[in-house]
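Customer escalation, tier 2.

The customer says the design service returned an amino acid string that "doesn't look like it belongs to this structure." They asked us to rerun it and document both sides in this ticket. The original structure tokens are below, unchanged.
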């Protein structure tokens, strides 16, 4: 069975060893098989095949039909991926709750002892994580500027979904907004548009500020985050100057 290098790499990232990958692919391609046939077709040594098939069953990639001999059947890739996703989401939820409940108080205590006013954040994923953290903490006021307020880009989709859950007063400045989104915007939100909005920025509760500076590559994406009131005041003043010259939707 010919499979692309990208798919082989993806299966490895999902936790399969080389032998497990070979055995699963053999079952996907050949259907129901006895262990000896899987060994022959996948070129996994017979001395290892039962161990390999056992791990594939534990990882929920295959089913086992008991008998003489037992028969092994690949689960559909869609079923496998959905099972893994749900399992990982649950484990991530539990792990996140444990880590945050124990380590966040320690971090905040240390941060108060050794305060830093400005951080440089590297990478799109890290910047989005910081933005989500800020939005989760918002209690009073959120100022958000986006070049385009729609769901055509995964970054914007992530931020938009999180913003729609914010309970604080939200002001959004953008150059364009997708028509399908207008009906989803809560009445307490204020949204204005102007011809051009440069870059993305976020100010929360007049204290926390995040500005994203995007380059051409993932490695070029930088975020400037500040917890200093003065930095937030400057960002707010600039936002409000643009806000005054913008159109209410």
């Amino acid at each position: 069975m010919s499979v692309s290098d990208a798919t082989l790499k993806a299966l490895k990232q999902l936790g399969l060893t080389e032998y497990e990958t070979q055995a699963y692919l053999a079952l996907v391609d050949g259907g129901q098989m006895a262990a000896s046939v899987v060994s022959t077709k996948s070129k996994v040594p017979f001395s290892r095949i039962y161990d390999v098939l056992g791990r594939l069953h534990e990882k929920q990639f295959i089913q086992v039909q008991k008998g003489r001999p037992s028969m092994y059947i690949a689960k559909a890739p869609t079923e496998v991926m959905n099972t893994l996703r749900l399992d990982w989401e649950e484990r991530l939820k539990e792990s996140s709750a444990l880590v945050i409940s124990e380590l966040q108080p320690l971090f905040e205590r240390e941060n108060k002892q050794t305060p830093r006013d400005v951080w440089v954040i590297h990478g799109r994923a890290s910047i989005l994580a910081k933005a989500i953290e800020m939005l989760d903490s918002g209690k009073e006021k959120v100022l958000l500027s986006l070049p385009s307020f729609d769901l055509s880009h995964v970054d914007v989709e992530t931020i938009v979904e999180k913003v729609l859950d914010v309970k604080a007063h939200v002001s959004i400045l953008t150059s364009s907004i997708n028509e399908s989104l207008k009906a989803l915007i809560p009445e307490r939100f204020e949204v204005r548009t102007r011809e051009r909005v440069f870059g993305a920025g976020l100010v929360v509760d007049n204290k926390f500020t995040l500005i994203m500076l995007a380059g051409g590559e993932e490695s070029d994406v930088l975020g400037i985050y500040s917890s200093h009131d003065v930095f937030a005041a400057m960002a707010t003043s600039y936002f409000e100057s643009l806000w005054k010259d913008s159109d209410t939707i």
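Tier 2 assessment: The sequence is consistent with the input. The chain has a mean pLDDT of 84. Residues 5-75 form a domain with the Arc Repressor Mutant, subunit A fold (CATH 1.10.10.10). Sent an explanation to the customer and offered a walkthrough call.
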